[in-house]
Amino acid sequence: MTNVRMVTLGAIATIERDVIEASAVKDGTPYVGLENIQSGGDFVDVRQVSAGELASSKFLFTPQHLLYGKLRPYLAKIARPDFGGICSTDILPVLPGPDLDRGYLAHFLLRPDSVAWATSRAAGANLPRLSPRVLAEMAIPVPPLSEQRRIAEVLDRAEALRVKRRAAIAQLDTVIDSIFLEMFGDPVAKGWRTSTVSEVARSGPASIRTGPFGSQLLHGEFVDRGIAVLGIDNVVWNEFRWGGRRFISEDKYRRLKRYTVRPGDVLITIMGTCGRCAIVPDDIPVAINTKHLCCITLDARKCLPVFLHGYFLRHPLARRYLERTAKGAIMAGLNMEIIKAMPIPLPPIELQEEFAGRVAAVGRLEAAQQVSLAHLDALFVSLQQRAFRGEPLS
């Protein structure tokens, strides 16, 4: 990239704040809030507002503007609208000048380095904001306009591939939903008897348990390495994931051994973010769960973990029971006794095994898609870095 000059954003773009009072908003005007911009620039659920609906003034924008979220948690919310409307005052409409391509600017602002620059300069006590004055001071390399457009086109194509791959992965989740409801959606018509979670758990004490309470496990007892302690962050995605690692010592574990989780156990969050569910993987190291989780060890002759997981998350009978019993969609009252008593129609174990096989097949396909997405992510980062270092993209 030749003939590159470094200028401030304010020298080649205008950060506009044309205010429209709430009383002047007309019926059918598109409204964009931070919740309507995904990190990376996609719009979601943009709605048309009615006259008199809004309580405060907003900013006007056109299809030529770039929308920049100025709150520190959302500094990667940068979008290119193809429509005009109004936006939250937590969004800055930026109008590129004649020497600046909007797509090029969007990709430059979305770089991790640009987001980090803005993050370090956001100010304020509760929700730090990046001021328009500071944003205008950001230095940006400006090659000829034709080169800017070429860079934006290459990065747009690379990003489109990533979007398609993420959409394909998301679609696989709906495939499992469809398989589950097809196989298990009408238990009454199929004559399956109804049991409870308590009855399908392994016989013996502590087959359904929560973690240590109160003084049994204090935060100050966590150590840098040792026996893993599982919490909400391991379950919140409705699949098991390692988050921030917590450990207790071997000596502490000997006193809390009854809270050990096992491969195939089903974990359900009962505090904080309630009602999430995951299966403990086969390669789990020795670990215990916290009081925020209910851990269920099943009798595999009656109920497979993958079926209980699917039933808990997907079946209308389970959702209605939990919403009714826990008194609220966020399941604020979810506890171990509610889970124990949850009714569960039991299909034949052979049918559960067939479902497990189909889920595993989808999982293998998803793993392959994730590998492909990782390659595309690496390619995009490489292209992004080369583009703004002035290196050729071809």
Account of the protein in words:
This protein has a five-stranded mixed beta sheet, with no helix packed on it. The mean pLDDT is 92. The protein has 394 residues and is of the alpha+beta class. The protein has three domains: 5-142, Alpha-Beta Complex (Adenine-n6-DNA-methyltransferase TaqI, Chain A, domain 2), CATH 3.90.220.20; 144-185 and 348-394, Orthogonal Bundle (Helix Hairpins), CATH 1.10.287; 193-346, Adenine-n6-DNA-methyltransferase TaqI, Chain A, domain 2, CATH 3.90.220. It has helices at 9-12, 102-110, 112-121, 132-136, 145-184, 187-190, 197-200, 250-255, 305-314, 316-326, 336-341, 349-389, and strands at residues 5-8, 13-15, 19-20, 29-32, 47-49, 58-61, 66-69, 78-79, 85-87, 91-96, 139-142, 194-196, 208-210, 227-230, 247-248, 266-269, 277-279, 287-289, 293-296, 343-345. Helix 2 crosses helix 5 (145-184). It is elongated, with a radius of gyration of 26 Å. 28% of the residues are buried.
Short description:
By secondary structure, this protein is an alpha+beta fold.
Index terms:
394 residues, alpha+beta, Adenine-n6-DNA-methyltransferase TaqI, Chain A, domain 2, Helix Hairpins, four-stranded antiparallel beta sheet, 20 strands
